[in-house]
Amino acid sequence: MCLIGAAVSAICSCGDILDSAPDGKITLNDVFTDSEKTAAWLNTCYTYIPAGGMQYFFVMRGPVDWSDESWDADAEAEPSIKSGQYYAGKATAAAHPILREESKFWDVFWPAIRKCTYLIDRIDASPVDETDKSRWKAEAHLLRAYYYSELLRWFGCGMPIERETYSYTQDFSQIRRASYYETVQFVLEDCDAALSSPDLPWRIVTAPEGHRGTKALAEAVKARMILYAASPLYNQGQDRWEEAYQINKTALEHLRANGYELYNAVNYPATWEDPEVFLPNTSAKLFNEYFCSTMVYASNPLDRETIYQTIQGQDNVWAYGGVGAQLGYKTGTCPSQELIDCFETDDGIPILDLARPYLDEVTHLQPNYHPNVKYDEQNPYVDRDPRFYASFYYNGTKRKANWLINETSDCYENYDENNPATQGYRTRVIATWTGEPQTGIHPTDRKATRTGYYQRKFLHPFAGLAVNDIAGAQYKAFRLGELILNFAEAAAEAGHLDEAWAAVNEIRRRVNMPDLPAGLSKNDLILRIRHERRVELALEGFRYFDVRRWSSPGDDLEKTDRWITAMHITRNSDGSYTHNRGPVSVERYCWSSKFLYLPIPMDEVNIMLSHTGENWQNPGWE
Questions:
Q1: What three-state secondary structure class fits 397?
Q2: Domain map of the chain by residue range?
Q3: What is the DSSP string of 208-227?
Q4: If residue 147 lies in a helix (H) or strand (E), which one and from where to where?
Q5: What confidence score (pLDDT) does residue 291 get?
Q6: d(Cα 365, Cα 581) in Å, to the nearest integer?
Q7: Helices 180-195 and 215-230, packing angle to 10 deg
Q8: CA distance 179 to 157
Q9: What is the bridge-based pairing of β-strands 577-583 and 565-571?
Q10: Left (φ > 0), alpha (ψ -120 to 50) or beta: where does 266 sit?
């Protein structure tokens, strides 16, 4: 089993960081008798952090595409890769499409945990400078907590707790799997160990240290995981919301005291104030700018919201996950109509009834509209939350970029017979009606949208081949916006309604959305906070985990994940449009109760069964 049997990975380095014995090898004891070798060991502990963003395989967004937020256009074009297999339900404990390529989480995180534990065990006796020793040990505790947190999120079950490095000669029949809550408590313990170090900084201020952990990250991991432990799927029938509230409140207080705040201004006006960005207001511009910009490491950065960003960028979003026709290759993530429905009108009124958004709760073709005088089913994209415009391209939006396509006479919004648009840097209308040759909805074309929408949230306004060829920003794995919403949810669930109301309104005010109505009941406030998560955190990968943790054991995902819908638009002869909801394609087969969890790989289950006599597999995957 990876947990107990993985060989310690060799350390590779350039230059003379690792002096070798005559046979070219060194022992683990050699590593921890030398400061540079110990530093190199710590660096390898960081190499297991997943890239996130578009890096789940073949430039795709992983959990975004595996939830009701979107449909992956590769599912039809490349049905043998992850999304196609997942939608088809072709998943077993021995071969699960998520647990392939870049997301072999079980195989990756246990060796990472072992490496962190080994450093924690050995560093006290090493000759490392005391300041470095304190910081490096804190980082190892933090990294171990983070890797455990990822195992908890994906697999949804308790884990064996590794406080000391397992020996290859010990009696593994005595290995005990802790409960989910006990494992979360171990995560909190490790984070507290990191926070206790006076030498672990709150913020990284130089680029060479950009990958390193901070006290801010430790607070963020604590806040996220106690929220999960209190959630229905994991709380084992215990009310843990007050604990989640207290930990999240303290985390927010500490982060604010150390300079973290929401990104609340357009900081690059030369780009985002350009009218050809085609964003309708300042709030939409700042929200889009934030997600298209990589945080700069500085003592007083413009971006004080991002807590941790991954080292690897998100490749060229415009080429692999934007408007596919721009390069003529692929679209990737296509936001769902369900996600579009979540964005309120700009007066703060929801589009749908939040308690029961669809009368047909499985197929989602009969919206259960909330009373809203500003929303028009046949003109649905006007007067919406600014984050809507910052996050999506929809029928009628414009994009100025380098388009590698020629318009034809049936590209009605873009073709001018007196001045035919050709390949090059120009403005194009993103027309998504059925039959539009370049950007219209299509059931199989890889470069087309499946849903009538393209993602914009991470797409730099002018990025494109040869002209302003700007890669996607680094993935923001933790940010203050998430923590504020974590706190709001925990506060509401614990009955601290005024604090929850204030927290969610801080998120809304950042984009000039009205406050929630005062005096909401506890249940109504929780609905609004869950709804706000869908909007603020859209396409960032949270929804996949949220629909699971909000479920009860034995529930399934039929009401959210079985059918994904699209907006099928007809272009009428007078140039007007008719909007009709419809399914994207076939139903998904990844909604039954077993899909609340990932399976523990079958080989690992068999090994632990032979050692302990216990079947450690998750429900439904036997």
A1: strand
A2: 1-57+100-200+598-622
A3: GGTT---HHHHHHHHHHHHH
A4: helix 130-155
A5: 97
A6: 6
A7: 160
A8: 7
A9: antiparallel
A10: beta
Burial bucket for residue 152 (CB in 10 Å: 0-12, 13-18, 19+): buried
Distances, alpha carbon 179 to alpha carbons 76, 219, 349, 445, in Å? 40, 22, 41, 46
219: amino acid identity, one letter? E
Spatial CA neighbour of 176 closest among 163, 190, 192, 187: 163
Going by C-alpha positions, the residue among 117, 127, 181, 177 that lies closest to residue 147 is: 117
What single DSSP character describes residue 32? T
Reduced to 3 states (helix: H, G, I; strand: E, B; else coil), residue 319 is helix
Locate the DSSP E strands across 332-483.
Answer: 333-335, 392-393, 397-403, 424-430, 454-455, 476-479
pLDDT, tens digit, for every residue of 239-296? 999 999 999 999 999 999 999 999 999 999 999 999 999 999 999 999 999 999 999 9
* pLDDT for the residue numbered 24: 55
Positive/negative CA dihedral, 93, 95, 96, 99: positive
Asked if the 1-57+100-200+598-622 domain carries CATH number 1.10.10.10, the reply is no
Angle between helices 522-536 and 480-493 (to 10 degrees): 160
| Global confidence as pTM | 0.95
DSSP 384: B
Among all chains, which residue has been given the structure tokens 């080292």? 311
Six-digit token string for 429: 């209308």
The ranges of the chain with pLDDT < 70 are 1-24
